[in-house]
Amino acid sequence: EAQVTQNPRYLITVTGKKLTVTCSQNMNHEYMSWYRQDPGLGLRQIYYSMNVEVTDKGDVPEGYKVSRKEKRNFPLILESPSPNQTSLYFCASTLLAGAYNEQFFGPGTRLTVL
Amino acid sequence: AQTVTQSQPEMSVQEAETVTLSCTYDTSESNYYLFWYKQPPSRQMILVIRQEAYKQQNATENRFSVNFQKAAKSFSLKISDSQLGDTAMYFCAFMKAGGTSYGKLTFGQGTILTVHP
Predict the structure, then answer these.
(1) In a 10 Å sphere around its CB, with 0-12 CB exposed, 13-18 middle and 19+ buried, how is residue A56 labelled?
(2) What is the pLDDT of residues A41-95, one digit of tens each?
(3) I need a labelling partner for B78 at 20 to 30 A (CA). Which of A78, A106, B61, B87 fits?
(4) Are B44 and A108 spatial neighbours (Cβ–Cβ below 8 Å)?
């Protein structure tokens, strides 16, 4: 089954404790991205990757890191989480970021930083 | 930069009736795509319908249709014969069709739709 998976689905952590949210897709997609969803703000892009070893900032990259060592995986790293990073996070992928291709979203990760 | 505005935080409709969700956007781009996504309580993001800006004909998908007014930068979603399963948060989204940062979706704030039996 074609899908985007994220782990964990739920995470409660404390300020400053490094964490990684994994994202994996099995569709051989080139373009992957991370979004955060906050009430009243919709979804906003954090980082994106056009292909392996090619990543760039989205609209709200502060406090986050990403890497793209393999085509299928695009982890989101919070090196020192803070309470303002409490949010719902989505990973998304699409075949090519060119002519329209449908974006596939993961199931979301609910992160709470205390 | 593009912005997408959904001015209706919440809406409700009776089952089997029709409801229209509003969306406006601002862009200097001439070529782009517009989308409506549904987010049910499961939180999964589900593509409902998309519209290519170069197409004058409004997109339709079964009970879902859009009213795309390019000059007015308006993109509303009409849901006909509303069903209980339509209860969800609906997001309007914009994507450039080329140039830098394409592939990025710019979302509106969302509209919570509740369908009452």
Answers:
(1) middle
(2) 999 999 999 999 999 999 999 999 999 999 999 999 999 999 999 999 999 999 8
(3) A106
(4) yes
